[in-house]
Amino acid sequence: MAILVSACLLGENCKWDGGNNRNEPVIAFCAGREVIPVCPEVAGGLPVSRQPSEIRDSRVVARDGTDVDAAFRLGAEKCLALCEGKPVGCAILKARSPSCGKDCVYDGSFSGVLVRGDGVFAALLKEHGIPVFTENETKEAETVLCNR
Ligand code: SF4
Asked: Which residues make Cβ contacts (< 8 Å) with residue 91, sequence separation at least 6?
């Protein structure tokens, strides 16, 4: 079974500031598995680098106030389409991102405040029954993969 992984966790420089979130435990988890790397924000047509964004009143807005919701949703749909015809066991996504965050995201005030909620891509995967984990939950992901 394939696994979807936030590309920035694998060391790809696709973060808003041009950097990455390379994560060694995630890379170790991916070893020997079929990995589908995804960056929904880049897939949606946003550049590297770009303004940081957060979810406010159910829409994604950039720090300068630009509404980037459509690009986020398009990117999420495109990344989901990469799974077509492939059984996907789970996704390992970057915590707190407005695209990839699971269960917890920034509140739209750009002041570091977290609230309950999912990023746009994480929410879409959940809607399609794909289990989502953060980079801090590889043990839980392992358990789910063993049982699928
Ligand atoms: S959209 Fe996801 S994969 Fe892309 S940089 Fe943000 S957290 Fe990483």
From this structure: 3, 4, 5, 122, 125, 130, 131, 132, 133
Binding site membership of 8 for ligand 1 (Cβ less than 6 Å): yes
C-beta of 94 in contact with ligand 1 (< 6 A):
yes
In a 3-state reduction of DSSP, which class is residue 74? helix
DSSP-assigned states of every residue in 78-121: HHHHTTTTS-EEEEEE-TB-TTT--SEEE-SSSSS-EEE---HH
pLDDT, residue 147, reads 86
**Which atom of ligand 1 has the smallest separation from the CA of 9?**
8
* pTM of the complete model: 0.97
Q: Tens digit of pLDDT for each residue in 45-68?
A: 999 999 999 999 999 999 999 999
Q: How far is the CA of 67 from the centre of ligand 1 (A)?
A: 18
